[in-house]
Amino acid sequence: MNFDVIFIIFFISIIQSIFGTGVLLFGTPILLLIGYTFENTLAILLPTSILINLFQIKDNYKNIDKKFYKNLILFCLPLIIITLYIANLNLFKANIFIGIFLIIISTQFYLDSIKKILKYLLTHEPQYLIIMGVLHGLTNLGGTLLSGAILSKDLSKNSKRVTIAISYFSMALIQVATLIFLINPGIFINKTYPLYWVLGLVIFFIVERYFYPSVNEKMYHKYSNVFLFTIGVLLIFYN
After folding, report:
1. pLDDT tens across 138-192, in order?
2. Closest Cα to residue 140, out of 47, 14, 41?
3. Which parts of the chain fold into alpha helices (H)?
4. Would residue 92 be called left, alpha or beta, if left means φ above 0 and alpha means ψ between -120 and 50 degrees?
5. In Å, what is the CA distance from 64 to each residue of 57, 68, 159, 161?
């Protein structure tokens, strides 16, 4: 067991427990930076993300933005399978473009012009989701666009979190299936990996019980912007 990984899982699981995403967004570049291969990174992070998302969905599924989720299934998920297989686990360097996009999104509550541009982009949701699927298959970072799309919508904090959670849950399941059946059947076989997965779930239960209920709508919007801005900056400077 690697204590560096334990600390990373602790940190990114807190973020995902609040926003519905974060394990892959933060975990992927951090684990790669400390020397893990892309394949091992996916093996550690994907089940962690799936377990947290599953429990976020379980008691809050009625608040899912069903129209967005249906479009995600149709336009995004098939592209993840294709591009992950084609990429064959080589990370495509699209980080700087995604990072700039997220920084722009994080300013939308302060700049009306940004808000209008984002609304225009999201009126073309199928095309947006196609791009997201391609980026996620190639980089494991397409979920940044997912966060940007959902957090920019006029929804309650519960609806935003559960819609992100079920979308990310579905994207991760597709990645797991693609990895097992098309790339490396033994990718998840490692005696230490389940410890990381369970740790993420434990962190979720703690955050869900003692912190998340105290976050009101106004705080959630504020934290969402800080979250997006931080991810954007990290992705720009991550090579």
Report:
1. 777 777 788 888 888 888 888 999 999 999 999 999 999 999 998 889 999 999 9
2. 41
3. 3-19, 23-33, 38-58, 66-75, 77-87, 95-106, 112-122, 125-139, 143-151, 157-178, 193-210, 217-237
4. beta
5. 9, 9, 6, 9
